[in-house]
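Late entry, evening session. Most of the bench is empty. Finally got around to the prediction I had been postponing all week. Sequence below, unchanged from the version circulated by S.P.
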Amino acid sequence: MLATINNGLSGTGKPESVFISWLLWQPRGADLAVEALKEVQKLSRYEGSDPDIARLRSLFASLAGADGRLH
């Protein structure tokens, strides 16, 4: 059973916890940079809506190897 971590206001859980959970669920041999970029693109839809989402997007962008702003 999966436990959900909730930090209060946004209800999204701590971005770092979400990121680590995502990493652990990736299949062996997955290209983490490519998969992280997909997550950045998904999270871009919610840009500016929540600081936790911005932090999570930043974590994925770092893993994707982005040195600048991703579109």
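Two things to note before I forget:
The helical segments are 15-25, 32-43, 51-64.
The chain has one domain: 15-64.
Will write this up properly tomorrow.
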